[in-house]
Amino acid sequence: MTPGTPRIAVVIVTYNSAEVLGGCLRSLLDGSRGVRLEGVVVADNASKDDSLRIAEKASGLPLQTVQLGRNAGYAAAVNAGVEALDIQQLDAVFVINPDCRLHPGALAPLADALRQPGRGIAVPRLTNPDGSLQPSLRRTPTVRRALAEAVIGGDLAGRIGTLGELVTDPREYERPGAAAWATGAAMLVSTDVIREIGPWDESFLLYSEETEFALRAADRGWALWYEPASVVEHIGGDSGVNPTLAALLIVNKVKLFRRRRSTPAAFVYYLAVVLGEGLRALAGRRTSRASVVALLRPSRRLQKLAD
């Protein structure tokens, strides 16, 4: 981070986001108080609704649109948005979902956090539309955590020390600190990190791309920092109710673990995830039934996103 007022650009990934994009764009001016907002890129994955028209009509923002021409996935759109920027003239890039709303001054505490040596990614406190906390911090994926979450569930495991991957204890969100990774809905990424570790991994299409990026940055010595003084409202996606997307989330979670760990550990992790989703499928959860099918039958896995 260079001395003086931080120079920040924003990349928003859209796909049929007309219902939420306007609110996101309107929040950027107040949200960028205390920093220099150098650019806003809306990277669109071939939306069929009015997303592009809404973006192009936004006023008061240094905005440009990038059209990918197909639904290429979240990582591909992030990469396209970053490529449209001159990162040599920036200190950081704020990657954000269109269903997010920045609270006034949200970017400045994140930029200040990145001034500390070794910090490469900064994430805000995420809230639900009703103002309640939206747990967003994660611990490093391990076989032990996968087994714990399979048996007792992610919510409870997250509250027992460091047993779970998802940090669910509200007290952990009251103070700043480092985390292994965090929900990719809103994250400020130093341009030093972007230059050093390269683009986001597009092979994930959707889900786990932010995990892979954060863990790859950590491999190079860059920490992810949580800063609760920055607040962003996140409406949230539909992976919790859409069986196809839920299955993709679970498959990509296993895929990433397999890439980073030994074959025996990856196999046990896979079995733990199958166990957890299987138990919830027996309890009647539709998303878990779809996840079990995708885990056991690779031919049924989603290979491309719908256009």
Automatic annotation (TrEMBL):
The keyword Lyase does not apply. Keywords: Transferase. Pfam families: Glycos_transf_2 (PF00535). Residues 10-138 form the Glycosyltransferase 2-like domain. The keyword Transferase applies. One of its GO terms (molecular function) is transferase activity. This is GT2 family glycosyltransferase. It comes from Streptosporangium album.
